[in-house]
Amino acid sequence: MSVLAYGYAVWAPIVWIIALVVIGVMVLIWRSRGQKSYKKGTAQTDIFLSGVKVPPEEQRHVKADNIYWGFFEALKGLYRAMMKPHTGIVNDYLLWFVAILAITILILVLAS
Amino acid sequence: MDSLITHSPALIVALPLVAAFAIPLISRAGPRVRNTFSLVIFGLITFLVAILAMDVHSVGIHVYTFGATAAELALPGGYTVPVRIMFEVDGMSIFMGLIITIVTLAALIYSLHFLKGQTGQARFYSLMMLLYAGMMGLAFTGDMFNLFVFLEIASIAGAGLAAYRTNMADAVEGGFKYIVISAVSALLVLFAIGILYAQYNVLSIAALGYYMQYTTLDMMALGLLGGAFLMKLAAVPLHMWAPDIYTVAPAGITPMIYTSSAAAMYALYRVTFTLYGSAIDTTTIGWVVIILGVLSMFVGVMMAVHQTDIKRMMAYHAISQEGYMLLGVGVGLAVLADPGALASYGRDAISGGIFHIINNALYKGMLFLTAEAIFFRIGTRDLNRMGGLGHRMKWTAGFFIIGALAISGIPPFNGFASKLLIYESVLRFNPILSVIAMFVSLVTLASFTKVFYSAFTGPEMPAYKEVKEVPKSMIIGMAILAACIIFFGIFPGLVVNTIVAPATDALINQASYINAVMGAVP
Q1: Which of B79, B199, B288, B508 is least enclosed by beta carbons within 10 angstroms?
Q2: How far does the CA of residue B308 sit from the closest CA of chain A (Å)?
């Protein structure tokens, strides 16, 4: 019931879950043998930003606009091309529809 | 009980239709009565779908002829072609029926509290029932004209629901766009049906499949039908309308409109495999479907990762995930005429594509509900204005994690099982396609990491210190889908053997669909 078997591969989620649980238990045991002198809420846990004053909590959250900035900057040419057809105008959507219909019918007729 | 099973296909479509027109009257007795009535009716429909599914699984194709002396009598005495309106429920039809029913049940329960205090609720529930009836009719119908009729019912109800929040200008605009693209698509479907009827004098899908000659006119009809369904299912480059509509539709309705796109995908497969089947050059058409699938996967995910509106981002992911379904089924279609390749990996590719339809309906439906739960509480969809919501909305955050891991194909969730089937089978067809599919999964995970980080982690924002978790009915709606995701993830073998494999076989085996109505194929 659980195992998904087909011609060339097998996927057994329950075995995977058991393995995950065993690894989780091992990690917890390992963690319990770690540094005991850690004290929550003391200077040990304060943020250090090379001496720069740390901004308040709510200002430290990185906004969605800034996440993966480098990825988008590197691919800005691709994004410019991909965004161009997304005009939000329904007439443009229908023009694409007509073009794809014509291409599809042409392929079907030429391929026969 | 036998009589109930016999008439269940008709009842499954008739009950929501009747309920849709009864709800405005029943609403006069108060919202509690209306909500109870909607739940009871839908509970009954769910029961009927369940017994029909068991019947189709154990007995096989279920034919229901309206007005015949016996419901299963497809051909009246002396006739060689079916003339009555007919439902034909095979493994693929009931598979779609199950998806539509699970998503609608979750959406209905979720909407009970979400709509509290809003006006026009009677119209909302009426349109919801109509949308359900339209989608189920589309999945069950055995003739082309009623396929058009049910497509229209689903489109009109969907447009009304997309524009439900008339106080939001973009919702009205979204509804308008949806009805324009749906009406144009439906008219082309009608035109194609006219072409087929003019040649063969029949409307039954089985009879058309039986007589199909694949003339130049048939090619044009296939092009029109294919184009119209690709538009409705929002395959790239015909996808631009989907983010505009999914973003503005109210909670509960976005998963349903998305499921109606999956129903359009069903119609595309039904036309390609069953109506045209062996008559067409499946290799060429398979490659067309594969190219559209790869484009949808890649463009969808790359657009998604760039978004900062949470629902718009999920809409692009919905397009991207449809690409996987097209890729899997496209590969199966491309090798349909090659029995060796079909048995070796083609059937698995189709199974993967079909399995992904139900998996995606579940986790994408739930992700849309979590996005709308956030909007319900903080009144914005802008990720830049979110943060730290996990402190206050623990259930929503938990459901989001489940959905995000599932859509990214992380084991042991359901998305992994179907994606694995697609990767492995497509690898044997063309390794480059499989690599693209894996890359898309990677970007999907990156995209949902961005959302999780932006919305749920970080310190509590001063503006959201008073935010509470969403009400119970909304949690139950999300929990139904989360439970299905976990169950499908842990028991993929059961799901594939029980509902996916019969759906795959129903698509591949054109003769069995035709035989159920026309008798033995010569």
Answers
A1: B79
A2: 6
Note whether residue B430 is domain-resident.
yes
* CB nearest A65 (choices: B176, B219, B308): B308
Residue numbers in A near B446 (CB within 8 A): 68
Cβ distance A2 to B492 less than 8 Å, yes or no, reads: yes
Cβ pair B454, B386 in contact under 8 A = yes
Complex confidence, ipTM: 0.90
Q: Is residue B323 part of a domain?
A: yes
pLDDT tens-digit map of B427-484: 999 999 999 999 999 999 999 999 999 999 988 888 888 899 999 988 998 999 999 9
Is A109's CB within 8 Å of B458's CB? no
pTM of the model: 0.92
Listed in sequence order, the residues at least 6 apart from B4 whose beta carbon sits closer than 8 Å to its beta carbon are B11, B48, B51
State which residues form the domain around B413. Answer: 281-490
Give the mutation candidate from A104, A107, A110 for the B interface (greatest B CB count, under 10 A).
A104
pLDDT tens for each residue of B3-20 = 899 999 999 999 999 999
- Whether B152 is in a domain gets the answer no
Question: Taking CB atoms and an 8 Å cutoff, what residues of chain B touch A6?
Answer: 348, 351, 421, 424
Tell me how far apart the alpha carbons of residues A31 and B9 are, in angstroms, rounded to a whole number: 58
